[in-house]
Amino acid sequence: MKRIGFIGVGIMGKSMVRNLMKQGYEVSIYARTKEKVVDVLEEGAIWCDSIAECSKGQDAVLTIVGYPKDVEEVYFAETGILANANPGTYVIDMTTSTPKLAAKIYETAKEKGIIALDAPVTGGDTGAKAGTLAILVGSDKDAFDACHPIFEAMGKNIVYMGHAGMGQHAKMANQIAIAGTIAGVTECLVYAKNVGLDPQTLLGAISTGAAGSFQMTNVVPRVLDGDLAPGFFMKHFIKDMAIASEEAKDHNTTLDILDHVLAIYKELEEKGLGDLGTQGLIKHYEE
After folding, report:
1. Which of 45, 48, 66, 68 lies closest to 56, judged by CA?
2. Which one from 104, 171, 235, 239 is the annotated catalytic residue?
């Protein structure tokens, strides 16, 4: 497979496109605003004027868009992927979306002779740039094996999770873990400040011990620098947590910590802070 269509070229998508091109893939792209992707076009990506154009004649079509409603539109509209991709095409949704929608895409694609995979990623903008994303894949095992070289261009920890939808379930579990961790490291900083500890010294002292985590190593330094710009948007994390909370209810599972953190983030979004990075949670404690 050498020809790839890529739909949704945002913060993470740009780096993923670049890494695919570095591995020799011919990448055609579609984004809502062409002006925002001029840089990757100058680097060799091929512009398409529509999702339909970006879907036709490709070996695989990758998507990473914002919300489940966007996934639904991109895949099921008359001008969308499933109506325009050739039979035999692999369609890979890397958006964090709902397991139910992933299963729906898989079944509809199968009827058309198209092979669908749900493959949400974790690792943020830094992982996307470095090509070290963790990629959690749900579909048939032979589809996973066929698309493995594509995943290798973008990530390092590529894991087959099971049938269609299980990649999304794995991503929900990931987001549940992050919710508690980011709240914990944020509260750690607030406590340190209020008792008179130097936060930078504290970070160096505890980040390599039992409290160490990706959030401690990568997010806390941003907070200490006053950098609340999105590596991952707060509004998108709210979406993810809401999906996880709903799926938990469907499976008779109570997630007390997740629901509490979600409520705090929703309050921040209501105050117009949804475009901050997830580290913007510090704003809750600074009030």
Report:
1. 48
2. 171
